[in-house]
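TICKET: design request
STATUS: open
ATTACHED STRUCTURE:
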């Protein structure tokens, strides 16, 4: 029995982990890596294993850094089942198509400039047809329903999904491994939610775990409280409005956008700021919000009750959802103050790049980050205070105010991750830390070793094979 991380090892994005048991080969997640453009593209384009040799893929959730390279896997010969929860499948149905469309659009935009410089064109990683073929391979399984994943010559893999509380449909994956006389329960955490989420249920405790494969995104940090975040959000909107500027919010289209929209809705209900145009500018944001309405089984009791009273927290008078590109372009010359929410959260693709291109140089505006930005992404450069940034290869001065709120993060912080481990039952003889920058992983490794002195806490590098 062996696990090999081929992504999200001492880095945050590109989750993909190869599990080998008695001849069975299963990939946990298949996400896109983000960061320096050329390095990320090279990492995403090629696979260090033969995709055709895989028996199946088990997907923890729909975020692009966990699912976004599935069409490329299929393009390279994978033809097995992709197991996911129903909500994850529905979200992937729109997200993978959107990813293919964005890649084609960005390649076209960049190639115009490359042609002027005499450089060869870049090609998208995959097409919309590849994304369509990928969706035909999905098999959906509800939470807490065990299912067979793969059988090899000398072993087998079974799995059960448990709610991870991170985003709509997100799952922890309990994998029951059998090889000869050996039995091991491996729990893949996926991304762990914070609990007490304004939309979702808390992460479920899982029992009988021998090995824990766990994220470490915020392994060295704590989030502020939601209450203080609401005050900060209100103050940021009012401060920017008084300057006559716009609040530009780069946000992950699934989960984070809905949380921010709900927060703004509740602030407007108590008149925290005057009526202000709010634009959600991303077809993916619009479509994913519609998918949210289809899966109330994922909501916590408070929001479910809220919806039963015929209130729509994702749509009210001030808010406008934008699908068409022409409407998006009109926002560049929109007069007066407004709030513009657009994907992606790390500012690596999509319409947010055009909004930053048109607004980052104006000191009246505010760029408000509400989630994590991986190292070397445009979002990370803005957050660290760079005075000049490159967008579509052109350099822009940064004059807008840059601020961040961590409280809307869908990821557990250090103390919440430690609490998650404590609630996980079983021997937990080994903990493998992935999906976090090296500094965060090392800090969480030290914290865990202090508490679990008889547990082997591993921080692997990419390609390290770990015996289970």
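STATUS: resolved
RESOLUTION: sequence designed for all positions
ATTACHED SEQUENCE:
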């Amino acid at each position: 029995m062996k696990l090999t991380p081929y992504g999200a090892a001492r880095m945050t994005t590109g989750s993909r982990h190869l599990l080998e048991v008695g001849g069975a080969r299963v990939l946990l997640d298949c996400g896109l890596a983000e960061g320096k453009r050329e390095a990320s593209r090279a990492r995403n384009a090629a696979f260090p294993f033969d995709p055709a040799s895989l028996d199946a893929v088990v997907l923890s959730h729909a975020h692009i850094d966990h699912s976004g390279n599935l069409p490329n896997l299929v393009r390279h010969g994978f033809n097995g089942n992709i197991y996911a929860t129903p909500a994850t499948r529905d979200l992937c149905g729109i997200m993978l198509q959107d990813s293919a469309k964005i890649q084609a659009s960005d390649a076209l935009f960049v190639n115009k400039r490359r042609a002027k410089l005499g450089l060869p064109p870049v090609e998208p990683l995959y097409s919309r047809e590849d994304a369509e073929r990928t969706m035909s391979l999905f098999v959906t399984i509800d939470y807490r329903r065990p299912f067979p994943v793969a059988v090899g010559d000398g072993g087998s893999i079974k799995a059960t999904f448990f709610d991870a509380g991170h985003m709509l449909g997100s799952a922890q994956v309990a994998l029951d491994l059998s090889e000869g006389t050996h039995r091991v329960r491996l729990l893949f955490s996926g991304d762990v939610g914070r609990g007490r989420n304004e939309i979702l249920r808390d992460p479920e405790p899982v029992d009988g775990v021998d090995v824990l494969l766990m994220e470490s995104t915020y392994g060295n940090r704590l989030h502020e409280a939601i209450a203080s975040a609401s005050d900060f959000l209100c103050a940021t909107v009012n401060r920017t409005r008084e300057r006559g500027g716009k609040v530009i919010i780069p946000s992950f289209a699934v989960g984070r956008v809905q949380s921010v929209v709900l927060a703004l809705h509740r602030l407007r209900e108590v008149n925290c700021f005057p009526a202000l145009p709010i634009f959600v500018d991303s077809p993916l944001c619009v479509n994913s919000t519609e998918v949210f309405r289809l899966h109330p089984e994922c909501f916590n009791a408070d929001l479910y009750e809220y919806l039963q009273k015929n209130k729509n927290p994702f749509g009210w008078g001030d808010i406008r959802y934008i699908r068409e590109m022409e409407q998006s372009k009109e926002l560049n010359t929109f007069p007066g103050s407004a709030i513009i929410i657009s994907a992606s959260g790390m500012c690596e693709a999509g319409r947010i790049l055009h909004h930053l291109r048109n607004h980052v140089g104006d000191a009246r505006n505010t760029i408000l980050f509400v989630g994590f930005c991986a190292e070397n992404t445009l979002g990370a450069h803005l957050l660290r205070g760079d005075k000049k940034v490159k967008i579509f290869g052109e350099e822009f001065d940064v004059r807008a105010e840059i601020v961040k709120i961590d409280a809307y993060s869908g990821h557990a912080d250090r103390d919440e991750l430690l609490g998650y481990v404590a609630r996980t039952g079983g021997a937990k003889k080994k903990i493998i830390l992935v999906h976090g920058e090296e500094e965060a992983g090392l800090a969480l490794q030290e914290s865990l070793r202090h508490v679990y002195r008889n547990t082997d806490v591993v921080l692997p590098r990419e390609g390290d094979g770990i015996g289970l």
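CLOSING REMARK: The first helix runs from residue 37 to 45. The CA atoms of residues 251 and 343 lie 5 Å apart.
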